[in-house]
Predict the 3D structure of the following.
Amino acid sequence: MTDMAIPMIEMNDGHRIPQLGLGVWQDNDEQAAAAVRCALQAGYRLVDTASIYENEAGVGAGVRESGIERAEVFITTKIWNADQGYQAAQDALHASLERLGMDYVDLLLIHWPVPSRDLYVDTWRALIKLREQGLARSIGVSNFRADELHRLFKETGQLPAVNQIELHPWLQQAELRTANGVHGVRTQAWSPLGQGKVLADPLIAGLAAKHAKEPAQIILRWHIQHGVLVIPKSSNPERIRANADLFDFALDEDDMAALAELDRGERIGPDPDTFGA
Ligand code: A2P
């Protein structure tokens, strides 16, 4: 259980989003349901899934089994690359809602821009319509670059509430975080722990010893202090709990400066320029 509540962050559409949530990538339905029950018990109120994860049914079941009201939980899902386009994206959300067993999601994202297909503006228009219909309370994107955000705004007059990007100490994305911030788009980090690979970095181990915290807590706290939203993934109950226990300590300026030095501009996941082409 966390010592202090997870902060709520206001988005550019006036809705609020928990700064920390549970990621469920690579979980099957059963694992996702168990992780969601555990996380909600530990004080999490956000779960991040996607149609491509094929565990939306498990997420929905986990929420219902938790005994926590649907209205108290923030659910994100995403439109997969194959479902881009004005009609296909709308159909895809309807299918996601059916699997989730829910009548709306709190946040709907375009999973990848797929610039080679050039459908993301049409897909964005579909998300705007789904928001008007109340099927998605907030809408956003994932893996978009600054020029793609500009184009959405130029062509539709609407900016995403969130841009969810790969972000961790080895890929700090300072420019893109600034571009998001200038437009009031909240930055959310996927793979905030670098898929667990950054945990073994010796500098992180040193800071963990200094603060009597775990390496994962150091990395997640670094994100939090940058104002970034995080969705760490874990299937392990102890680690799920530890990942939300971040609000009773702070990294100092020297810690933050040392962590800034870890940036290698190195992706662990796919490149948005070519992925889905
Ligand atoms: P597990 O599910 O066994 O806990 P990311 O969110 O950056 O993609 O990282 C997820 C990976 O990091 C998973 O392999 C997860 O494994 C591992 N992980 C998550 N939380 C922790 C933690 N507190 N300590 C160690 N490993 C963790």
